[in-house]
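Model the whole thing, not chain by chain.
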Amino acid sequence: MKTITSRDNAQYKELVKLAGNAATRRKLGRTLLDGVHLCQSYLQLRGLPEQCIVSESALQHGEVMDIVGQLEARHGHVLALPDSLFKAISQVEHGIGVMFSVATPERSVSGPLAVNAVLLDGVQDPGNMGSILRSAAAAGIREVYCSAGSAYCWSPKVLRAAMGAHFVLDIYENVDLAELVRNARVSTLATSGYATQRLYDVDLRQPVAWLFGHEGQGVADDLLSLATHQVVIPHLGQVESLNVAACAAVCFFEQVRQNQV
Amino acid sequence: MKTITSRDNAQYKELVKLAGNAATRRKLGRTLLDGVHLCQSYLQLRGLPEQCIVSESALQHGEVMDIVGQLEARHGHVLALPDSLFKAISQVEHGIGVMFSVATPERSVSGPLAVNAVLLDGVQDPGNMGSILRSAAAAGIREVYCSAGSAYCWSPKVLRAAMGAHFVLDIYENVDLAELVRNARVSTLATSGYATQRLYDVDLRQPVAWLFGHEGQGVADDLLSLATHQVVIPHLGQVESLNVAACAAVCFFEQVRQNQV
């Protein structure tokens, strides 16, 4: 275990940048996983991080001791920081002081859609993005494709909201969704308040690609017109629509239901 | 229309407090609805606000002109502010400068649960709270009961996330949920990863009360033990649970589906 105590240390300064700056994270292709749950999930599902960063007081914490122990047994890198220095790079209030620095996978689309997938066209809110990833993973969907205008999936807020879903998903970013839909070997389903076919009346027992859009504007018209089906989630109240993450959850688990009946 | 140009004006200073301080909002029993959509919804569903506050530049905006016109025709109160003063009380970035000051209804539970309802035990995140209210309203559920430890439903963040759902719901706060469940004339359903009965196997064609809990800890054990049914949403992936708002949406719309089959 290495210890840094000075704010002027070059390695610490890089962590400060990584924590505070989205552009730095994208440029370096790295992000920070903050908190016990994310670090445990990563260790279990993806293996060793580039580095584990712990606050001095967290070294007394049982779950953190376990994480550090696993890393040291496998010759991983552990960096200890005084609590004040750790706090300056953590976004979790009242959290337990542990984080991983990890590489963010960059995937290129290599073939046509052939299995269950989620396509996100300009989803903006990190909480929504994280909730959609989490629901997709819980519903057994593995592939997620995001347009250039969507929120960055590997930001700390999205990571926190997704609760480890990232580590069981294959996430593709900056994807040309129109091309993906045109070449898809599965049906593409978009929800729309104007559609006449109900979600419940579509046969979801084969793989489909779910298409969701921007919180305000929905899926872009040119992309929507490429979808195989437009379906409506029937509403009983006076409220006009669902939050995009709620809408996605309803769709994913209607598919789970149909496959289990 | 009245105009205030000084930051030292007593009425403006009260608005600053109302905008920035949750305790003030609770104490005064008032809140601010920020943005065109919330104001339009309130006018349509609940009627005149105590006051409409507009920025000077927003007075040129078509939808705001329409709102102000409706208020003046019905002798409502409109207050115009210079853009800089408006911006200081608005939490919406790049928004159109219009908000309503409205009374927050305080309801007392007056009888046993007898219709569809949502019971929230310590839901913390304003985005989750708003999404649940929005989904409930869209699914035609009208009654929402929140425990003392839940997020305040009338905070600006919850209001924004709920997109007007507040105005078609009867929301009860600081409710003794255990007493409510004990006296209920409808079944109470809680979701749990440990339950053996699937959501899809419960008959939801009669009214039920849905019980959801804190994001991390779930429903408190003593309350959970009072629920008539514990049900599981089947998961296909390695991710252990759904976000509470996603979970609620799946439940509400499974009920909609069963009632429409």
